[in-house]
Design a protein that fits this description.
Strand order of the largest sheet: 1-3-2
Structural class: mainly alpha
Oligomer: single chain
Shape: elongated
Order of helices and strands: HEHHEEHHH
Number of helices: 6
Number of strands: 3
């Protein structure tokens, strides 16, 4: 899967939140944050179906649209893409950069230590 665009994330989020939806429902949920017209949303949905990101149930009218991947699958792919592009695959460098820039609470620190211990790192 290629990296998702911001617009694709918006469409997928609308579908994840609804489970499945008709075009009008998707357009209505996206309009306040994007200003997109019904035709724009239809264009995105059609392109995303070709990319394998959306399924369209054409047996019903109006057609029903559903995300073809789970929210967690999308997040996993985005993390992998980001890690590869920005940190050349080094999860340690990524974590170190975040920890240098953003302090963590004692509870988060303990949770991180426990995770690393469980991973036997």
């Amino acid at each position: 899967m290629s990296r998702l665009t911001d617009s694709e994330w918006r469409v997928l989020t609308a579908l994840w939140d609804s489970g499945d939806a008709a075009l009008g429902e998707v357009a209505a949920s996206l309009r306040p944050g994007t200003g997109w017209s019904r035709n724009t949303v239809l264009t995105y949905l059609t392109r995303m179906e070709r990319k394998g990101l959306v399924t369209i149930d054409k047996e019903h009218y109006p057609h029903r649209y559903r995300a073809a991947l789970s929210r967690e699958e999308g997040r996993t792919e985005e993390r992998r893409s980001f890690l590869s592009r920005v940190y050349q695959g080094s999860a340690g460098d990524l974590v170190a950069a975040f920890l240098k820039e953003e302090p963590i609470s004692p509870q988060e620190r303990e949770r991180l230590k426990k995770l690393l211990d469980e991973m036997e790192v």
